[in-house]
Specification:
about 325 residues; 10-stranded mixed sheet; DUF1853; 2 domains; 8 helices; globular; DUF1853 family protein
Length: about 325
């Protein structure tokens, strides 16, 4: 039975997140199993020891994960159960997909007490929703989960969590955490929650996984609250993007953003083909796209790097937004 580690392992910076993942999990081929492996084994996005998070950041480890994932992928009935579970999703939102994967894992590991429990004070008054109620070390624990992808905006004098902003500029790492800490994690204390709880919640924490993206691969000094081992990428404007003529590329669809990519070589693009694809995208759509660089191995392209390519006006708009919020 997996347990919470007393001292989470600190992963070194000697390997990239991609190198680490391919070394441990490249034998996995099913995309849902690979995504689940990344969710359960990826470095934490946040520093659980940072004072600003008030001890409310969860860290998780499963010593039997490799054996469990291998059995999941190699047992047809279990793999089919996972696919049915994912096929029941009401939407293709990445956050919902990641949450559904974890729900499957927690249920299979006999940790899940409840998932996505909506709490209402009255018929028209929704107080909030429990992402996960889990049985951990004998107690009832409330976990809020988030899978996030933030780009660092560096126009400020000193960097902080709010300088990591979403690609669509709808939120920031700081604002997301404040909402989680001061609203969602307090849900078990609300009177309307009590009918949903068979016993007192012993801990309420945030489990956050994701990737952080830095302009032109420049990694400034540590940002308070952010893990030094978080998975990293780059971001750059379309005009500033330089493609390596010796590398092949792929635009990742949103539901494949979690784990480092493993792409059939028939689906990769040359630099020339990728320039055309990017031009076509930004001709009609101003949303950033996630571009991965790949190295060929055994009939596949394995991700070596990833970055968000953004419209040329994105940095100016991001800087203006951060200036206002500061």
């Amino acid at each position: 039975m997996p347990t919470l580690p007393n001292n989470p392992v600190v992963q070194t910076d000697l390997q990239t997140c991609q190198q680490q993942f391919h070394q441990r999990w490249n034998h996995l081929s099913d995309p849902h199993v690979r995504a689940l492996a990344w969710l359960l084994d990826a470095p934490d996005l946040l520093d659980p020891l940072a004072a600003q998070w008030q001890g409310k950041v969860a860290s998780y480890a499963d010593a039997d994960l490799a054996a469990w994932l291998a059995e999941l992928e190699q047992t047809p009935e279990k793999l089919q159960a996972l696919h049915r579970h994912i096929d029941s999703l009401p939407s293709t939102r990445l956050g919902l997909y990641a949450e559904k994967l974890l729900a499957f894992y927690f249920e299979q590991r006999r940790m899940l007490v409840a998932h996505s429990v909506q709490v209402r004070a009255s018929k028209n008054d929704t107080v909030g929703e429990f992402d996960f109620l889990l049985r951990l070390d004998g107690g009832l624990v409330h976990w809020e989960f988030a899978s996030k992808f933030y780009l660092l905006e560096t126009s400020g004098v000193s960097l902080q969590a709010d300088d990591f902003i979403g690609r669509d500029m709808a939120d920031s790492l700081g604002s997301k955490m404040q909402k989680l800490l001061h609203h969602q994690l307090a849900l078990s204390q609300h009177p309307a929650s009590q009918p949903h709880l068979s016993e007192a919640v012993v801990a309420a924490q945030v489990l956050m996984k994701g990737w952080l993206f830095y302009q032109d691969q420049q990694h400034p000094a540590a940002v308070p609250g952010v893990s030094a081992n978080a998975c990293r990428g780059y971001w750059c404007t379309l005009s500033d993007l330089v493609l390596d003529e010796t590398t092949v590329y792929h635009l990742l669809p949103r539901q494949r953003w979690l784990a480092p990519a493993k792409v059939a070589l028939a689906d990769v693009s040359s630099p020339a083909q990728m320039r055309v694809a990017l031009s076509q995208h930004f001709a009609g759509d101003m949303s950033p796209v996630l571009l991965v660089s790949l190295r060929p191995e055994s009939g596949y392209g394995l991700e070596t790097d990833r970055g968000f390519v953004v419209p040329d006006d994105w940095p100016e708009r991001a800087a203006a937004l951060r200036s206002l919020s500061r």
